[in-house]
Predict the structure.
Amino acid sequence: MSLVGRPGFQPDEFGPMVVAPGVIFRYLPESKWKTLSINVFLKIPINEERFTSLALVPRLNSNGTRSLPSLQHIARFLESMYGGHLGSDASKVGPVQVIRFTIEIPSPKYLNSAKFGEALGSIEAKTWSFLWDIVGNPYLENEAYPERTFEVEREDHRRDIIGLINNPPSYAVVRLIEEISRGDRRGLPPWGSLERLASADPAVTWNVWKETLSTCPISIYAIGEGADKVGEIVSRNGITFPAGRLREIVDISEELKPPVTPEEVVRVEEGFPGRQTVISMAFDTGVSPKDPEFPVLLFLDGLLGGFPHSKIFSVVREKENLAYFADTIVDAWRGLVIAIAGISDRDKDRVEDLIASQMDVLRHGDISDEEMDNTRKGLIRRLRTEADYQGTIINRMLNHEILGGARTGEEIVGGVSKVTKDDVISLANKTELKAVYVLRAEGDS
């Protein structure tokens, strides 16, 4: 089936295959792009003892495989794949830790020819074999990650954590989530903890990864020309695991119910070296991605702070000149709209009152037709750009797998197109402030 020139994708166009217990391979041979992208996602329930070690694995595995034992070998291989790119990271989707490995190469359609000396399907086979080796057959010494590699990557990870902590807006949101989670392990930040990082061990980390590969759900996506060939290769050859694959796969659905938000507003202030105080405020809507009201949640976020015409941007930053920046983000799993602003410390109480008052404005229905129209257009434009990028299409599908809800941006567009002012007012009146976190500037100490 040709998909050339189509404005979007239907989720069912991804051909699905079960290739091992709990392992689903999905592929979309779309000719719109000039690249083939293959992505492996491991979905792991959060375990406080293992979380930090697992966050190290994407770094460690990318250093070499059994057949390509160094970064130099990997670089030469990627060069031989016509400038292929390898990527890996650890993140969270709602309450689930997600370890991702991905490779992107030029579309094999232009490479499988006598000019390049490649037989039909051989590029796809080599690409998939390499990526799965990165996942399951990393270079080891005595059944452990090499000591020197481990120390280098652990130190780089530590520096990256410090770098994230030194980004006050991002850190303020992470701390807000931790506080509103009240000790729930699912509130851990994506990178883990510095304390557990310091005690991580090369052999233990490899054993944790082997066990994780045996038991966690895995989603594999191939998108672009040649994706169907990858599907044929995986279907024909199967995939192997360093410690086998158990039939009883971990059920991540048990993790999905969000923590109960506190009845009273949680208030936390912490000092931080710097010149700009950051305030973040969590408003609980009670709406999840699976709920029919989810497009209304996106609309509420857009009206409150998601665009330059939004309430807190136009009032706190533009009119009152009290913020260096003002924005909102959505925590879809928890159903939170999080407002965040960079301010002078002396203005923190006034800014909190102003942000809270803008939610009151929405509750009272003080929303112009122009604001509704601009928000609708902005959301639709943002959602429709997803169809232009392989990564955003795959991420939307992955979010659907874990959290439910829409599988494409176009599905949400249909809901956003129907949102009315009364819908927004109704949801705003169900929305409650649940947490305020202030990261207070303490100069350059």
Remarks:
- DSSP finds 15 helices and eleven strands in the chain.
